[in-house]
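With this grant's support, we have paired protein sequences with backbone structure tokens. One protein thus recorded is set out beneath this paragraph:

_____
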Amino acid sequence: MSRQKLMGWGRTAPALSDLQMPRTEDELLTALSQGPVIARGLGRSYGDPAQVSGGVVLDNRGFSAISEVGSDGVVTVEAGVSLHELLKVTIPRGWFIPVTPGTRQVSIGGAIAADVHGKNHHVDGSIGDHVLSMRIATPVGALDISPTHHADLFWATIGGMGLTGVVTSVTLRLTPIETDRVLVDTTKHRNLDSVMDAMRTGDDAYRYSVAWVDCMTKGAAMGRAILTRGHHASADDVETLTLEGPSNARLRVPIDAPSGLLNPLTIRAFNELWYRVAPTKKDREIQRLSTFFHPLDGLNDWNRLYGRRGFVQYQFAVDDYHGDVVVKAIERLSSSGVPSFLAVLKRFGPGNHGHLSFPMEGWTLALDLPVGPSALPVVLDDLDDLVLEAGGRVYLAKDARLRPDTVRAMYPRLEEFLAVKETYDPDQRLTSDLARRLNIGGHH
């Protein structure tokens, strides 16, 4: 078992964590007997869900096997396998992952812990909807769980931020594809009302849909947007039939950008350029899978563009009836002068049974906000209030600053989740800096 030191960043002075990489279930169960402990995937979390100051962080990359893909698309993947590694195996065989976030650099275990969603939630739900069964190590032992066997633990684990145990393998059903291409329709929209109306009335005709939104404009052009929607291309749609897995990133950001480079002036200029060069309307453009789903994965260390201070990722969901919260949130941002380098709007279909799963039927807006502006904390608190008043919620997988009382209001099944956790982790050994900060179980 390899060990090194990992820095944990809590609200108090950071304390060192012990980083271990178990390679067998027995080693994992031994590690779980220590506590406080949390699992870690590829370390790409925006906040503190995979850190535990003064405790043990378990690197899950020791679990790295992929089974043969069945003729029905069923595959068993160990928790440390990244989506990138999985797709290199499955795409050449004609299978794609049923749900993917905006990066392939996520482990399967991490994807389960966050119950990740993608551009197709309105059609296919989140990753948890495609899981047939899992193997999980808990402080009371290792178990095979599914929607019909230990269902309470299964659904507490889907989106449970690693607080119920350490998933070691996942069996899920893949999506059949004929090519490694996507047919994409692009439309430009002059304001937020226009793009939301197009998504509300037209998204059901597409498997995948996402809108880039400009949060720096005001007045009649507030929230102008570029909407891209598509389907997997069939063999008849392409001239040359190819099924190539993803390639590794060829470019790297070599240094941290100067602090303050991403300011209202530069972001406004970038957004203006991005909007102007986008086509007003373009139909059936053929794009590579990686271009459509994972554009940032072509650039290693892209986060360095934000400078050493970094950025805050903020994502919320509200139901259809409260779609005006999206409008109010962008109004608040555009009037505050707090720049958002990237704003992504998507439609959600119905949520699943996960106690802490984030999606709910309606809208979700994700924002990248560079750290630095003095107004940023106040603006985020205002957004919390807007979302809370509308009965919405903030995505725990991207959170670094919510308050315990806010989380309890946003996730009404939290007490039910904690009761399941108590059953399988009676001594509260599984915890994280996020769990401590939000008071959702575990040692303090």
